[in-house]
Amino acid sequence: MHEFGKAVGRLRLRINCIWSSPDLRAIQTAEIFSQEVLNKRKVQAHKDLSPKGNVRRLIGNIADLDPSIDGLLLVGHEPGLSSLLSVLTNGNVDLRVKLKKGGLAKLILDNRIGLERCGTLQWLLPPRVLLGLTNKGTLTTRGPGY
């Protein structure tokens, strides 16, 4: 998982806050990302990122964020994260998004965050692409089928 954290660091994303499911493995993963991209800032646990979390309430919490937070990384579980991506980009849970374990999605959100479409999916990276990032932030191939 440290390799994933380093790969995210190489993407030079503007992340200044990390929320995680309160589940132990998710917290551990979020702390690894925090070490790599936030210089060990505190990870905040949010129950609505847990497997039985409430997507509507999570969106409300995101909408209530301090405006100075312009890069939020969420660490959670499926199918909750895919449902969240669907609601933010499509306005409902009908959009089929396959977010693989260890994958990363980047959304650009409008100023108005709510239960209607309010964001654009900029990219969705599977774990093998993240691990293919070199120190220079470019992709390397690892053989056939990559």
What does this entry look like structurally?
With 146 residues, the chain is of the alpha/beta class. It has one domain (2-129): Phosphoglycerate mutase-like (Rossmann fold, 3-Layer(aba) Sandwich), CATH 3.40.50. It is built from 5 helices and 5 strands. It has helices at 2-10, 24-37, 55-63, 80-90, 127-131; strands at 17-20, 44-45, 72-75, 104-109, 119-125. The chain has a 3-stranded parallel β-sheet, with helices on one face. Strands 4-5 form a two-stranded antiparallel sheet. Strand 1, helix 2 and strand 2 (44-45) form a beta-alpha-beta unit. Helix 1 packs across helix 2 (24-37). The longest helix is centred in the N-terminal third of the chain and has 14 residues, at 24-37. The protein is globular. Mean pLDDT is 82; it is low at 139-146.
Keywords:
Rossmann fold, 33% helix, 5 strands, globular, 146 residues, two-stranded antiparallel sheet, alpha/beta
Number of helices: 5
Give the overall pLDDT as a whole number. 82
Order of helices and strands: HEHEHEHEEH
Oligomer: single chain
Q: Write out the CATH superfamily name.
A: Phosphoglycerate mutase-like
- Which strand order does the major sheet show? 2-1-3
Strand content: 15-25%
Helix content: 25-40%
Largest beta sheet, briefly? Answer: 3 strands, parallel
Tell me the CATH architecture.
3-Layer(aba) Sandwich
Distance between the termini: 20 Å
Q: Which radius of gyration do the C-alpha atoms yield?
A: 15 Å
CATH class type: Alpha Beta
